[in-house]
Hints:
Layout: H1 3-9, H2 13-24, E1 39-41, E2 50-53, E3 59-61, H3 75-87, H4 94-101, H5 105-123, E4 131-139, E5 165-172, E6 177-181, H6 187-197, E7 204-208, E8 222-225, E9 232-233, E10 236-237, H7 239-256, H8 264-276, H9 283-290
Parallel strand pairs: 4-7, 7-8
Antiparallel strand pairs: 1-2, 2-3, 4-5, 5-6, 9-10
Helix pairs in contact: 3-5, 4-5, 5-8, 7-8
The protein binds zinc ion.
Amino acid sequence: MNVFKIAARFPDQEACIEHLERVRFSPKAYCPHCGSFEVARKSENDRVGRWNCHDCKSSFNVLSGTIFAKSKIPLQKWFMAIGLMLNAKKSLSSPQLSRDIEVPQKACWYMQQRIRAEMTNKNGEIMLHGIIEADETYVGGKPRKRNKRDDNEPKNPRGRATKKTPVIGAVERGGKVVAQVAGSLSGRGVMDFLRKTVDPEGSVLITDEYRAYRAVRGTIPHAVIKHSERYADGLTHTNTIEGFWSLLKRAWYGTHHHYREHYTPLYVGEASWKYNERRNDQAFGKFLAGCFA
Length: 293
Ligand SMILES: [Zn+2]
């Protein structure tokens, strides 16, 4: 949903609240504290969307427990921030968002981090099936993908020995991606990741010749593309996951320049959620509904 549609559909705070109440409280409103249905919306001259619970005597609104809770930013601006982020292929910087929705840059940055955290949480457990490409990369510093093979060479302290953050990912061709910051890109680390991500029944794993992938031998059928020789051999290539890395890196190098390593999982989470919803024209609604799940 673009900002034009958001502005038309959600002209004010009340319209946003009513929409969220329909999403969260359908078919019946309940108290988020005790679960009771004995609740009533306060009178209209009170604050918009405030409810009372007759059982636990607490008051609440539809935003309780969500990323919007206790925010002073109008919901229409939150909705626009979400719409703009979903439409931004290369991610969206907080100074840009600040200009777009007229909210101070620092507040925009916090909003975006909350939206990213929500996307990261909702990526959940995805089991990939079919032709799966797995690969690893490093985010941060200058791009030096070729040097990842030098991982274990003390003379050449790149990759793991630098400040760059290792990220591992697997993508189902034509389907979803799972990517995460990797504690370790050793054989065991790679194996743990693939075990919870790739359904071994009926799947074929394609990787480059990085030696950590040898650990999967005997568990998943495995084809290796030797990048030292060529980049594709018929179906044997890792172009899909490379494409995802380039999206992630364009966000890194083009939009955010350098975000702190600490936040890398949130940027990986945003890129993954958006990739997995790339063909869903209801992604905006799905994101809002997810905030209550
Ligand atoms: Zn209650």
